[in-house]
């Protein structure tokens, strides 16, 4: 934990992790004078309530600092939104002093050193790891009354592009587990690598530990909330958390012995 980037880690005796990198909306007070966006403008592109979905009985890594301050699901070169093309066309900062940029980049490096340590410790303790990398995405870009294009916007997009091929059976087991469930009495549309394929967290972890574990980057379409007003639909949020709870039960029965070594 640092004053410049806030997150919390809760460890348990489990090989499984839930991450919510974009749940937060906090901005360090030292930086607010340079910020050009208000809370509502930032909130729309953040992933509110993913921290609630990620509150599972496993290891947790939940970020409370806004991605608009530092986005650790991007490379260090793109983690600070200095240009509109990095931030959905939004102009995020007035001229940000170089010392603050340097401090934020240092935080990026420190966070990934800690993540590396945590994943290595999980491997040491259990022999493998599985990360649920939880996000959400907007599907009504043109306005609140836009009709959702369900064909191009799956209810759950599973990003897996950086995973070692050995984990394809595990990935399929997760997808099948979700497909076999109901969400508010309706079938669940989960598809792989349609909207998003996985971000820097997945690339980093797989680059170092891909033979020992798998990162499932789970993007929920933002129909568990009003993506324009920010109003949460609590029943839907809790239903998604239950979907992941059930899928975890299935993954815990997976034969990891065949994948070690």
UniProtKB/TrEMBL annotation:
Q: Which domain of life is it from?
A: Bacteria
SUPFAM superfamilies named in the record: Zn-dependent exopeptidases
Give the matching Pfam families: FGase
Which protein, by its recorded name, is this? N-formylglutamate amidohydrolase
Origin organism of this chain? Sphingobacterium pedocola
């Amino acid at each position: 934990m640092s004053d410049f980037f806030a997150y919390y880690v809760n460890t348990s005796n489990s090989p499984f992790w839930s991450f919510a990198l974009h749940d937060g909306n906090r901005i360090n007070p030292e930086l607010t004078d340079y910020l050009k966006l208000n809370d509502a403008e930032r909130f729309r592109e953040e992933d509110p309530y993913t921290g609630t979905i990620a509150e599972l009985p496993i290891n947790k890594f939940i970020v409370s600092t806004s991605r608009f301050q530092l986005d650790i699901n991007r490379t260090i070169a793109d983690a600070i939104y200095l240009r509109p093309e990095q931030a959905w066309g939004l102009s995020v900062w007035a001229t940000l002093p170089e010392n603050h940029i340097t401090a934020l980049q240092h935080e990026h490096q420190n966070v990934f050193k800690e993540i590396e340590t945590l994943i290595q410790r999980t491997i040491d303790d259990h022999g493998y790891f599985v990360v649920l990398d939880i996000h959400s995405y907007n599907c009504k870009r043109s306005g609140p009354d836009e009709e959702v294009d369900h064909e191009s916007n799956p209810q759950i997009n599973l990003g897996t592009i950086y995973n070692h091929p050995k984990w394809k059976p595990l990935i399929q087991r997760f997808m099948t587990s979700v497909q076999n469930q109901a969400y508010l009495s309706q079938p669940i549309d989960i598809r792989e690598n349609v909207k998003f394929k996985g971000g820097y967290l997945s690339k980093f972890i797989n680059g170092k530990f891909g033979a020992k574990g798998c990162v499932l980057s789970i993007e929920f379409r933002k129909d568990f909330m009003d993506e324009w007003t920010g109003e949460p639909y609590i029943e839907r949020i809790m239903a998604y958390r239950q979907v992941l709870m059930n899928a975890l039960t299935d993954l815990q029965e997976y034969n990891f012995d065949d994948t070690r070594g």
